[in-house]
Amino acid sequence: MVAGLPDEQRRSRTFPIHVDDRESRGPVAELLAQSPDFQVTVRRLKLGDYLVDGRFLFERKTLTDLVAAIIDGRLFQQALKLSETKLQPALILEGTAQDFAGCGMRWEAIQGALVTVSLFCGVPLLRARTPGETVRTMLYAARQGRTFVTGALPRHGYRPRGKRARQLFILQGFPGIGPAKARRLLERFGSVAAIVNARSEELQSVAGIGNRIAEKLRWSVEEPHREYRLRD
C-alpha cells in the first residue's frame, strides 16, 4: 500500500492484478504481494497467469518451462487461445541463456516456435531475467496502458477489432492464405484452433485449398519434433 494516502486515492495509484491460484506459491506472486503498486487477488484464471488492470493478460514461462511446452505441444495451443482473447495478451519469457544449458533442444527449434507465437499468432513476447523483472515488466505495461488510454501515446499499427476479425488476421499470416481462403476456412472449421489441428485431407475439402497450401499450413503449425536433438 502507499502510506499516508486515503483509500480512494491510493487505489487510483495502484493496479489491480488477478493471479492464477496455480501461480500463487511462486516467486512472482510473492513479490506482487509485497509491492506497493499492485492490489493482488488470487483466483482461478481460465487463461493466462496474471490479469493486470483488467486489460493485460500475461502468460509467464521460465525458459525451461518454454522448452517443456514446445515438446508437449502446449505452447502453440496456449498462444492460439491468447490470440483470440479480447484482452491484450503477452508472453513473458523469464530467465537467462544459462537456463537453456542441457535442455536437449536445438536453438533453431526454439526460435521457430517463438516465430510462430509472435508472427503467426500475434502474441507479443517480452523478456525478463528474474521474477523481479517480470513484476516490473507488468508494472510498466499497466502504467503505459493507462497513458495510452488518455491519448498521450501515438496509436500506430493495425490491430483488428473483434474476435472474427482477429481470427481472419491470424489465418492470413499462413502461407498461401488470403482473405477469401481465410473466410472459407473459418466458415468450415469454426475456429483457428480447429483449422490448425485439421488433417491435410480435411483442409483440402475447402474450396481453393489444394494439397500444396494444405501441406504448407500443416508444416507451419506442426511442432518441429524432428529437429529436437538430445545432447550428450
Number of strand segments:
6
Indicate the CATH architecture of the largest domain: 3-Layer(aba) Sandwich
- How many domains is the backbone divided into? 2
Oligomer: single chain
Structural class: alpha/beta
Mean pLDDT across the residues is 83
Biggest beta sheet summary: 6 strands, mixed
Straight-line distance between termini: 50 Å
Apparent shape: globular
Q: What series of H and E elements makes up the topology?
A: HEHEEEHHEHEHHHHHH
What does this structure look like?
The protein has 232 residues and is of the alpha/beta class. It folds into two domains: 7-149, Rossmann fold (3-Layer(aba) Sandwich), CATH 3.40.50; 163-227, DNA polymerase, domain 1, CATH 1.10.150.20. 46% of the residues lie in helices and 14% in strands. It is built from eleven helices and six strands. Strands 2-1-3-4-5-6 form a six-stranded mixed sheet, with helices on both faces. Strand 5, helix 5 and strand 6 form a beta-alpha-beta unit. The model is unreliable at 224-232 (pLDDT under 50).
